[in-house]
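**Backbone description:**
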Amino acid sequence: MVLISGERYLAMRHSFAHFALLTETRLLVASVLAWLLSIILYINFAANRSVFMPINNTFYGLCLAFILFCHVTVYREIRRHEKQIAAQQVTVEARKQFEKDKKAFKVTFIIIIVLMLCYVPILIFSAVLERFRSKISLEVLYICFFLTTLMAFLNSFFNPIIYSFRLREFRVAFIELICKTANIAEAEQREMKIFGTPNAVVRIEAGQETEGEARQNVEQ
């Protein structure tokens, strides 16, 4: 989620750097480094459990702070772009790109809110356990551990559902996967029958055509 938030930050705040810096190779390297960092943290857990929790909580806190910073910045950029669009100060291509970026931001924002709701309880429980372990009964300890761990695991269950409801491409791919005999065109038709979701870009172009016709009528 840190990598996704950083990518959205570059896309909205530094669009030219976004295309120049984010190559496929660099994204793969960043993903591998993220996995290696997680493995290193849990190697530390196996070596010294007393040091693991403070380091792990600090790491998660920094990640959450970075995610919040990126999304607050992206939200401000979206508001600024919306004002420019309302004032007709952007091109048609810029409007299309803005709609795509705005849609991606909304999906990422929902994913991050669900992520925090799922993981914050286990982080709070870990911090409380580290400080008040001797005062917590074994029954309460097991119940809290089970519930907080279950919520963390549920995050992986919620993500595909969110993507399915928010992204048409994900729904089409899912239908194509379930109906193995259907090709992409048939999967798109079935998705339209089930959800009936119009494309945002088509709505923008239709609105622009309507505005153009209205202006022609006024001139005539």
About this structure: The two ends are 54 Å apart (CA to CA). The mean pLDDT is 76.
